[in-house]
Maleylacetoacetate isomerase (Chionis minor), 210 residues
Amino acid sequence: PILYGYFRSSCSWRVRIALALKGISYDTVPVNLLKDGGQQFSAEFKAMNPMKQVPALKIDGITLSQSLAIIHYLEDTRPNPRLLPQDPKKRAQVRMIADHIVSGIQPLQNLTVLKQMGEKKTEWAQNCIASGFQALEQILQHTAGHYCVGDEVSMADLCLVPQVFNAERFKVDMGPYPTITRINKTLLELEAFKVSHPSRQPDTPAELRA
């Protein structure tokens, strides 16, 4: 497998965690979202992913984009350890939380949107994340065990950790979100979350390395 991604992309990080949890070794091809006006806009990358976004994963003779589609494929083809609970209610809760982050928070504060916001980008990002986290904190109070849903690491957790990283980058006050903070801290102690961290990638700039 070959993963095309960017060290700080939360969508790329979700996939890196899934690959690490499932013990899938892969090669990395960095796509720098800032350099040369954004390498995701190159003709070569556009041919691979017309949406001009990371990540893209070449695996089993196909190329997939969109982080959750990639993770679902890995779940279907390499089911251990599972990232979706067997219980239908818990499975639905995992998907709900993942969608809440992937559709309801992350796109509103991604690079493309922030470029449009100019000087207000930090304030915009903080407001979008805080609004999403207020809802997410309430949801997690009903679903959480050690992790987002019960005591098994799931697809929801793969979405949570990169989003908290973004929140911290944009200096969001995490005080009102004790459940999110607790789960994030617990997850960051797991090896798969450590090795996939943005501070430990081949394309991480020297000054940001762990």
Summary: The chain has two domains: 2-80, 88-193. Residues 121-143 form the longest helix (23 residues). The domain at 2-80 is CATH 3.40.30.10 (Glutaredoxin).
